[in-house]
Amino acid sequence: MIIGTFRIGEDIALALDAVAGDIANIQQITANLSASKQRTHFELDTEFTAVTMLVSDRSAEGANPAGWTISLAASQTTSLKPGLYGIDARMVDANGNVDITEETALIRVTKGAI
């Protein structure tokens, strides 16, 4: 399921909600944007170098549910091509346990008429 459509040259921002566990236990979280070979379903394009996204903790904002905002600045989206992209997050807790998002978040990137 595609959770959002964004234009080349605009910011991308998505919420990653903590649905279980204690987010205070998370020591590190990273997120990457990867391109798909296909336009109708996600098939990882191994020729595309994944783009590291900015991850911001929303707990200081009193977000409910708690979690993070995953974003990519407009200046970085200008290098993207129209198509389907997948976003995954990787979390490491205080014990060194690694957890990856259960499903890849899919977004579509389009080119404006201007």
Could you name the key traits of this structure?
eight-stranded mixed β-sheet, single chain, mainly beta, 1 helix, globular
Account of the protein in words:
The mean pLDDT is 90. Strand 6 and strand 7 form a beta hairpin. The radius of gyration is 15 Å and the shape is globular. With 114 residues, it is mainly beta. It has one helix and eight strands. The longest helix has 4 residues.
Give the topology.
Layout: E1 2-7, E2 12-17, E3 26-35, E4 51-57, E5 67-72, H1 74-77, E6 83-93, E7 98-100, E8 105-110
Parallel strand pairs: 1-8
Antiparallel strand pairs: 2-5, 3-4, 3-6, 4-5, 6-7, 6-8
Query: Strand count, sense and closure of the main sheet?
Result: 8 strands, mixed
The H/E string reads: EEEEEHEEE
What is the averaged pLDDT score?
90
Globally, the shape reads globular
Q: Given the helix and strand composition, which structural class is it? A: mainly beta
The number of distinct helices, counting runs of at least 4 residues, comes to 1
How large is the share of residues in beta strands? Answer: over 45%
Q: Assembly type of the shown chains? A: single chain
Tell me the number of strands: 8
Radius of gyration: 15 Å
- What helical percentage do the residues reach? under 10%
Uncertain stretches of 5 or more adjacent residues: none
Amino-to-carboxy terminus distance: 28 Å
